[in-house]
Amino acid sequence: NAGVMQNPRHLVRRRGQEARLRCSPMKGHSHVYWYRQLPEEGLKFMVYLQKENIIDESGMPKERFSAEFPKEGPSILRIQQVVRGDSAAYFCASFPLRDTNEQFFGPGTRLTVL
Amino acid sequence: QKEVEQDPGPLSVPEGAIVSLNCTYSNSAFQYFMWYRQYSRKGPELLMYTYSSGNKEDGRFTAQVDKSSKYISLFIRDSQPSDSATYLCAMSAGGYQKVTFGTGTKLQVIP
Q1: Which residues of A touch B88 (CB under 8 A)?
Q2: How far is A80 from chain B (nearest CA, A)?
Q3: Which of A6, A37, A99, B67 has the fewest beta carbons under 10 Å from its own?
């Protein structure tokens, strides 16, 4: 049973480009969180998704950031017109039921904006 | 004031020591309390998961929750160099409520 997968593991973008981060949850998991982690900082909640539904996007900047979790395929976190401040590690975590907090994390995508 | 406070450390202990890691929180709605371990440049992994108050033990790890004081702890007995990592506390009110993480405590166990 494969764990949570994220790709790419490392992503380099120039300012103004788009970054697209993918997360494949564990088999049978229908809920996904996205987090951002800056060096020496904790995990900052961005968005909580259920398949085909955004549950809570209160942690995501209103501009340039969007997320989806389609019925088929991975969850996508998209950052448009990236800026240097977007450089961080982005983690997704999945879990199967709406009321469990037993989240399983992926290895993260490290985004560097030049 | 942050919802969850955690001393960032770093905390250095000799091998075999008992380690105590702590978090305080302000949201009385929190009912689920977790501890994650994160090695450098890796994703966090769940260590302990507790509902409401009380103690939970798993091998060398013991999690304690005191809801009256809004204080949670993780104890590591007989610490090993392989325990060197950042430990993150996390908590939520359950249901569709988001999980809130502490900033993490960096632990180094010296052989």
Answers
A1: 42-43
A2: 24
A3: A99
Whole-number Å distance between alpha carbons of B63 and B76: 9
* B14-60 pLDDT tens trace: 999 999 999 999 999 999 999 999 998 899 999 999 988 889 999 99
**Residue of chain B with shortest Cα separation from A108:** B43
Distance (Å) of CA A18 to CA A11, A13, A65, A81: 11, 7, 10, 5
Q: B8 and B63 in contact (C-beta within 8 Å)?
A: no
| Contact in structure between B49 and A101 (CB atoms under 8 Å) | yes
pLDDT on residue A73: 92
In this complex, the residue of A48, A59, A107 whose CB is nearest that of residue B43 is A107
Residues 6 or more apart from A28 whose CB is under 8 A from it? A96
**Helix (H) / strand (E) containing B52:** none
Q: For B60-110, what is each residue's pLDDT tens digit? A: 999 999 999 999 999 999 999 999 999 999 999 887 778 899 999 999 999
